[in-house]
Structure formats: structure tokens, C-alpha cells
């Protein structure tokens, strides 16, 4: 019966370079102290999250002593919480985690307590519990094992080597619908903590030095990312709340500016035009004297008259004749409603294509057809959806449209016209139900892939050479 070869003897000095790969810390200088029982890691902003039966802790690590502009966000399951007595006799309750420690190619699991060691020369202490039988400590020597280098914390290096970690994510939503439930379900399946926050129950402390967001009487914790599902009726307040999250440095899947621009149909069409993205001929005017010219700019009847704040196909009217168009325009003006007039693309035949964009690519597409007798293809109004293959030009148009608004997740609605794809709308809060069921793709997972890729350790400023 063969047995595994024993690990080679490892000689350690009182100071050594170590790695904590599971925490995304490839290089730390640790003090090896056999007089201390427990090992500790310098950590700040320590806070718990996750379910009570499997709690986790998140914290920030400054791997280079004295250089606090570099912060590495870390998280790990909590294995214990215990009282630890420091070398000066002070007692402190600390969270305990387990993680892999690597020295000179040898890796083993150690327990670490988390504490704020700012001011200490070393940001990690290796106690005797972390040492194995094959290790010898020589107190009079240092760096018996190969030395590492702090250059591994350059922006490019840390982004490549950062491990996946448990994230704390907020979904801004006032509705318990399919999209919200899928985002929670998928996030928790991947080990993240996902909390649904009712947008209108938040309130903000607007402060230059310490901006805060409060919810139900308590200050909200720090989130790694926010997924906004801001309803059209609360766009103004929802985007103000997002600006507060942005001020806190939180990654917002879709930013406040992109949501604001996409929700205002006039602004949205101006953005599309500025970026030379194809769209139906569109006109807007305030004076009732301009009705005839307005109709002419849109290409004449039949045409679409659309309220600026319309959603899900509501407030969108097809005027089949010039007289009908004039009547609708007069009626909308009588209600003091803001609207625009748009070319009716006949060849689309009541169908449009929803391209679901995540990051820099279209991850799924579906063709939506209106109910019989209805030119609108919205699923909420009884339309149907089928999978569709889109052209290279349609794919490029959808991605460019989402990028024009700075949106990482968007539903881009296209019409197929004789002169190429025309963008009808860019939706900054697209529903997941129709696209997931039609495409049979896990869109929520693709959104989390984007979040995990974007939420990385903070890049550092230029390093000064570290003293040896």
C-alpha cells in the first residue's frame, strides 16, 4: 500500500513572505511568532452578511503597511468568533476564518482571526497553531524562503488573479415579480448575498465627506453591487438614489445617467441620433401651429404618436391617416401631454426584435408579434414571442445603442426596415421572464457573470519601491 510522500521540511525565519490565494492576497510579509497561539490578519471595515445558518464576513485588507490607498476586498465563511488576548494584554472578540496559506510552493489550511493592525509593521501574524510538524522556526533569521514582490498588486495583475468571492448585492425593486425573484435565486445559488431593497423606502444623508443611505431607520451596509430595477413611476427618486450609491463607490449595473436618458423618450432619441444609430424618423414640437410640419417630418400618415412617458406600449397610438394624426395630436396637446411623432415602419408588420444586451454583447434575442389587430408587440399587451436569429448588423446596432447610454444590461428593441435595423427603444430595466422562457437561456446568470467580472479589487496608484 503506497503512502503519499511527506511534505519537505520548511525552515522559517521570524519574517517571511506568504500568500493567501483564496482571499486574493498573493504577497504579504508575515511575522512568525511561536509565542502567539493564534494567527491574525490585518482587516478593516469588518462586517457580517449572509444567512444566519451560514454567516460570512467581508473585510478590506491593506497588504502593504503604510500604504492605505490600496484596498483589497475579501470575504470568507465565518468558522468561529472568539476572545483573543493581544500581546499587550487587551482582550478582543474576533471573527475567525479558515483559508489556504502558501509558502514556497507548500499550501495548507490555517485559521486566521481578523483585527485592525494599522500601525503595526506587519499586517499578518503567524502563530504556532498555523505551523505544521515539518516546520522549523529560526528566530534569529528572516526570509529563509523565496521573497515575493508587492508589484503583484498592480492593477493588471490583481484583476487577473483576483478569486471569485461572495458578494453583497442589492436589488432595487418595489415588486415581487419574476425578474426580482430570478436575480435573488441566481445570486444566492452562486454564494452571494442578495437583498431586495424597496426604492422608495430609502432615504439619503447627502454629505460631502460621508454620504449615507438609510433604510427603515438604519444605515444601509456597504454593497459590492447594485442591480437597479427602478420602475418608470419612480424614475426621478430611483436615479437620485443610484447617484448616492455611485457617490459611495458602489458598482451600479446601470448608472443613473443612462437610466435617466433612456426613460425620457425625447432625450433617448437625441442620444441615438448623436451616436448615428438608426431609428425611425422622429419629430417633436410644442406649438399647435406646427402640426402639419410635424407630420411631414415623420414621413406622413400612417404614423405613430407616442407619449414621452409611455411604458409597455401604453400611450402609443397608430394614426392611419393624416386627419387621424391631426386629431390625436390635438387631443394630446389638449391634455398638455408631451409626445413625439414617429415614422411607422410598415414592413415590420407589427413585429419587433428584443435584443438583450449584457456587457458588450447580445446574449439573447426574440421576435415579438402583436396580438391580432394590434400593431404593438409588447408581451404585456397580449403579444407573443419566438426565438430569432439576428444579423451581424442588428447585433452591432443593439450593442452600440446600449453603449450609447452607458448601460451594462439593456433590452434594445429593433424594427427590421428596408433600410436596416431601426432602434425603437432602449430599456434600462428589461424584464427577464419573456427572454429567459423564449431563449431557454439563463440570463440572470449572465448578468452575474458581468457583475463578478466588474466587481474586482480596487486598482492602486503607482507604487513606490518597497523597502527590503
Layout of helices and strands, plus pairs?
Elements: E1 10-13, E2 15-20, E3 25-32, E4 40-42, E5 44-49, E6 56-61, E7 72-77, E8 80-85, E9 91-103, E10 106-115, E11 124-126, E12 135-138, H1 155-161, E13 168-172, H2 178-189, E14 193-197, E15 202-205, E16 212-215, E17 218-219, E18 225-228, H3 235-247, E19 251-252, H4 256-263, H5 265-274, E20 282-283, H6 291-297, E21 303-307, E22 316-319, H7 322-334, E23 339-343, E24 351-358, E25 361-369, E26 384-387, H8 392-404, E27 409-417, E28 420-427, H9 433-439, H10 443-454
Parallel strand pairs: 1-12, 3-11, 4-10, 13-14, 13-18, 18-19
Antiparallel strand pairs: 2-3, 4-11, 5-6, 6-7, 8-9, 9-10, 15-16, 16-17, 20-23, 21-22, 21-23, 24-25, 24-27, 25-26, 27-28
Helix pairs in contact: 3-4
Characterization of this structure:
By secondary structure, this protein is an alpha+beta fold. It has four domains: 152 residues, Beta Barrel (Cathepsin D, subunit A, domain 1); 95 residues, 3-Layer(aba) Sandwich (Rossmann fold), CATH 3.40.50.20; 64 residues, 2-Layer Sandwich (Dna Ligase, domain 1); 108 residues, D-amino Acid Aminotransferase, Chain A, domain 1 (2-Layer Sandwich), CATH 3.30.470.20. Helices cover 22% and strands 33% of the residues. It is built from ten helices and 28 strands. The strands form seven sheets. A seven-stranded mixed sheet has the order 2-3-11-4-10-9-8, with no helix packed on it. Strands 26-25-24-27-28 form a five-stranded antiparallel sheet. Strands 14-13-18-19 form a four-stranded parallel sheet, with helices on both faces. β15 and β16 form a beta hairpin. α3 runs antiparallel to α4. The two termini are 47 Å apart. The C terminus is likely disordered. GO terms for molecular function: ligase activity. Its EC number is 6.3.2.-. Keywords: ATP-binding, Ligase, Magnesium, Manganese, Metal-binding, Nucleotide-binding, Protein biosynthesis, Ribonucleoprotein, Ribosomal protein. This is 30S ribosomal protein S6--L-glutamate ligase. InterPro entries: Asp_endopeptidase, ATP-grasp, ATP-grasp_RimK-type, ATP_grasp_subdomain_1, Peptidase_aspartic_dom_sf, Rimk_N, Rp_bS6_RimK/Lys_biosynth_LsyX.
Amino acid at each position: 500500500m503506497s503512502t503519499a510522500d511527506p511534505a519537505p521540511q520548511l525552515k522559517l525565519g521570524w519574517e517571511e513572505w506568504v500568500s493567501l490565494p483564496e482571499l486574493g492576497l498573493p504577497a504579504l510579509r508575515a511575522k512568525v511568532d511561536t509565542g502567539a497561539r493564534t494567527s491574525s490578519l490585518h482587516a478593516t471595515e469588518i462586517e457580517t452578511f449572509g444567512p444566519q445558518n451560514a454567516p460570512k464576513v467581508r473585510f478590506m485588507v491593506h497588504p502593504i503597511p503604510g500604504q492605505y490607498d490600496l484596498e483589497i476586498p475579501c470575504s470568507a465563511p465565518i468558522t468561529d468568533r472568539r476572545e483573543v488576548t493581544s500581546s499587550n494584554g487587551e482582550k478582543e472578540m474576533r471573527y475567525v476564518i479558515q483559508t489556504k496559506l502558501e509558502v514556497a510552493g507548500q499550501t495548507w489550511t490555517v485559521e486566521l482571526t481578523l483585527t485592525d493592525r494599522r500601525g503595526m509593521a506587519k499586517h499578518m501574524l503567524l502563530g504556532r497553531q498555523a505551523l505544521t510538524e515539518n516546520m522549523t522556526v529560526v528566530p534569529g533569521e528572516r526570509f529563509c524562503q523565496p521573497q515575493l514582490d508587492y508589484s503583484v498588486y498592480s492593477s493588471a495583475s490583481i484583476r487577473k488573479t483576483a478569486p471569485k468571492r461572495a458578494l453583497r448585492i442589492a436589488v432595487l425593486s418595489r415588486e415581487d415579480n419574476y425578474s426580482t425573484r430570478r436575480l435573488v435565486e441566481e445570486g444566492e445559488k452562486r454564494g452571494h448575498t442578495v437583498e431586495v431593497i424597496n426604492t422608495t423606502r430609502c432615504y439619503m444623508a447627502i454629505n460631502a465627506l460621508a454620504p449615507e443611505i438609510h433604510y427603515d431607520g438604519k444605515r444601509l451596509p456597504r454593497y459590492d453591487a447594485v442591480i437597479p430595477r427602478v420602475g418608470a413611476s419612480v424614475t426621478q427618486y430611483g436615479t437620485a438614489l443610484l447617484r448616492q450609491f455611485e457617490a459611495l463607490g458602489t458598482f451600479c449595473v446601470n448608472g443613473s445617467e443612462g437610466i435617466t436618458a433612456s426613460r425620457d423618450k425625447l432625450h433617448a432619441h437625441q442620444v441615438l441620433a448623436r451616436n448615428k444609430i438608426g431609428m425611425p424618423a422622429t419629430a417633436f414640437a410644442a406649438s399647435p401651429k406646427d402640426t402639419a410640419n410635424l407630420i411631414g417630418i415623420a414621413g406622413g400618415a400612417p404614423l405613430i404618436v407616442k407619449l414621452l412617458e409611455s411604458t409597455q406600449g401604453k400611450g402609443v397610438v397608430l394614426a392611419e391617416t393624416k386627419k387621424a394624426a391631426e386629431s390625436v395630436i390635438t387631443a394630446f396637446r389638449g391634455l398638455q401631454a408631451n409626445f413625439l411623432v414617429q415614422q411607422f415602419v410598415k414592413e415590420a408588420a407589427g413585429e419587433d426584435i428584443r435584443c438583450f444586451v449584457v456587457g458588450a454583447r447580445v446574449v439573447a434575442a426574440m421576435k415579438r408579434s402583436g396580438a391580432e389587430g394590434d400593431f404593438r408587440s409588447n408581451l404585456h399587451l397580449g403579444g407573443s414571442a419566438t426565438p430569432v436569429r439576428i444579423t451581424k448588423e442588428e447585433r452591432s446596432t443593439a450593442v452600440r445603442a446600449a453603449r450609447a447610454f452607458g448601460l451594462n444590461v439593456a433590452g434594445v428593441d429593433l424594427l427590421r426596415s428596408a433600410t436596416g435595423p431601426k432602434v425603437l427603444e432602449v430599456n434600462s430595466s428589461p424584464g427577464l421572464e419573456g427572454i429567459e422562457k423564449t431563449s431557454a437561456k439563463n440570463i440572470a446568470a449572465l448578468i452575474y457573470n458581468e457583475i463578478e467580472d466588474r466587481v474586482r479589487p480596487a486598482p492602486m496608484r503607482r507604487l513606490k519601491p518597497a523597502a527590503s
